[in-house]
Amino acid sequence: MQLIPSGISLTHVGYQLLMIGRRRQDLTPAQYRDHYENVHIPLMRNLTGDTFPLSHERHYIRREQGNGTDGAVTFPAAVLPGTSQAAFDYDAVAILTYRDKAHFDANWAFFEDPETSKIIAEDEAKFSEWTKGVFLT
């Protein structure tokens, strides 16, 4: 999914954040994606207002239902032959695009504010394991 407001050109943006996220392991990939798209993103847009990124592009690792050796339901990543499943312990890659570092800083301030960070953390706990996530600028 990609959220780019109309009239915004991404050819001259100055700052991006790459996030690699992991779903809660008791959720299916479909449940994870549904919550991320239909609950978390609208919540973040509402909480952060004008500081929300110019775009918040998300890509999900394709996973197919299978059965583990113990009979438990698993969702291995659909990897190419020769690629290790161990390399895919995450479920989504997101690219957040900001006008510049100041725009990013204004958005990130919501994660440092005690009130909004609590709301964000409570929602993230419902669908993700962000402590196992990776954040790169």
Automatic annotation (TrEMBL):
<feature type="domain" description="EthD">
    <location>
        <begin position="24"/>
        <end position="128"/>
    </location>
</feature>
<dbReference type="InterPro" id="IPR009799">
    <property type="entry name" value="EthD_dom"/>
</dbReference>
<protein>
    <recommendedName>
        <fullName>EthD domain-containing protein</fullName>
    </recommendedName>
</protein>
<dbReference type="Pfam" id="PF07110">
    <property type="entry name" value="EthD"/>
</dbReference>
<dbReference type="InterPro" id="IPR011008">
    <property type="entry name" value="Dimeric_a/b-barrel"/>
</dbReference>
<dbReference type="GO" id="GO:0016491">
    <property type="term" value="F:oxidoreductase activity"/>
</dbReference>
<comment type="similarity">
    <text>Belongs to the tpcK family.</text>
</comment>
